[in-house]
Specification:
Elements (H helix, E strand, L loop, with lengths): L2 H11 L1 H5 L4 H17 L6 H18 L7 H6 L5 H17 L6 H16 L1
Helix pairs in contact: 4-6
Length: 122
């Protein structure tokens, strides 16, 4: 498992221990610092982590039908009444995000990735 998803799992069960309170905004800031620290230490991101770093923001924007430069945390907060609600929504959305391509088989995903890379190069 990736370091990112390991720490996210820990934060979900004990947010107070890692970020002070169950807050999507605090979680966002923690993750920005976490990513920076790993990069500074020369720890390479896994394929899953790079998918999250590159695709979660645009996926959230598409899901909420917004085009903005605001963070995914601020977008998630739009329909939420509290930081706690936003925190809980983040984890529901993260599960959905991680499952978004699971209906396709592994070979089909590889073909899509290859086709996309071919289109980019062509």
């Amino acid at each position: 498992m990736s370091k990112l998803f390991e720490i996210l799992q820990k934060i979900q069960t004990k947010p107070g221990m890692y970020i002070g309170r169950a807050s999507v905004s605090d979680l966002f800031h923690f993750l920005v610092g976490f990513k920076t620290a790993l990069r500074e230490l020369g720890v390479e991101a896994t394929k899953e982590e790079m998918d999250f770093y590159r695709e979660f923001q645009p996926w959230i924007q598409k899901k909420y039908h917004v085009s903005t430069s605001n963070s995914w945390a601020k977008i998630i907060m739009l329909p939420c009444g509290s930081e706690q609600e936003g925190f809980n929504a983040f984890y529901r959305l993260l599960d959905e995000f991680k499952m978004r391509n699971k209906s396709l088989g592994g070979d089909e995903l590889d073909k899509i990735a290859t086709d996309e890379n071919t289109q980019i190069v062509a």
